[in-house]
Design goal:
The chain has 202 residues and is α+β, with helices and mostly antiparallel strands. It has a single domain, classed as Nuclear Transport Factor 2, Chain: A (Roll). β6 and β7 form a beta hairpin. α2 runs antiparallel to α3. It holds the Pfam family SnoaL_3.
Length: 202
């Protein structure tokens, strides 16, 4: 699936997709996504390669325990699989990635927060009925883990057949049982409507 997504991104303005890629600056437009929220249009994609910034938990390594690098790699793989399932509108693959419990939450752009796997699954079922193809180019990705909890913050640059490119800021939270795979327990996505002007602090 990762190779398929790399090939898709390569065909788009020679962008490179290794989990992240660079974008140009954008401007505010009114464009519907999910339920008609206002998002930022991406001015253009470049061929520059960005780097996944990983905050790795430091600690003493024990015999048989996975390394921090291996944890981050597994988290990145799970995160990319989430967007791969979204692009392919693959409900079975999406279901496999989530923890099936009452504690999971999902906030799509413009939606109220959904709680419990039943509501989350129903939302993806409804979204996948739409025949509009979406492609996700991920930028500004940062992954971190602490024990059996991990989180990834990322900008979703979304391309579609019918709408201009848009940007959504997302936070994905994963957890696992010891020795098990990483499962999503929370996805929160908010529309990016402007670039903040951040001055240098003294």
């Amino acid at each position: 699936m990762a190779e398929k997504r790399k090939a898709r991104a390569q065909s788009l303005n020679d962008a490179t997709f290794d989990g992240v890629s660079d974008t140009g600056r954008g401007r505010v437009i009114a464009s519907p996504y999910y339920s008609g929220v206002t998002l930022r249009r991406i001015a253009g994609l470049t061929g520059a390669r960005a780097t996944l910034r990983c905050s790795r938990r430091r600690g003493k390594r024990t015999e048989g325990a996975p390394t921090a690098n291996a944890d981050i790699d597994a988290i990145d793989t799970a995160n990319q699989a989430f967007y791969g399932a979204f692009e392919d509108r693959d409900l079975e693959a999406m279901s496999e990635l989530w923890e099936h419990s009452d504690r999971v939450t999902c906030t799509h752009p413009g939606w109220s927060t959904l709680r419990g796997w039943g509501q989350v699954a129903a939302s993806f079922f409804a979204l996948f009925q739409n025949d509009q193809h979406l492609q996700f180019i991920l930028t500004n990705a940062s992954a971190a883990s602490a024990g059996d909890v991990a989180w990834v913050s990322v900008d979703e640059n979304i391309l579609s057949d019918a709408q201009p490119a848009t940007t959504v800021a997302a936070l994905n939270v994963f957890t696992r049982v010891p020795g098990g795979p990483w499962r999503l327990v929370a996805h929160h996505a908010s529309p990016v409507t402007a670039d903040p002007e951040l001055g240098d602090e003294e």
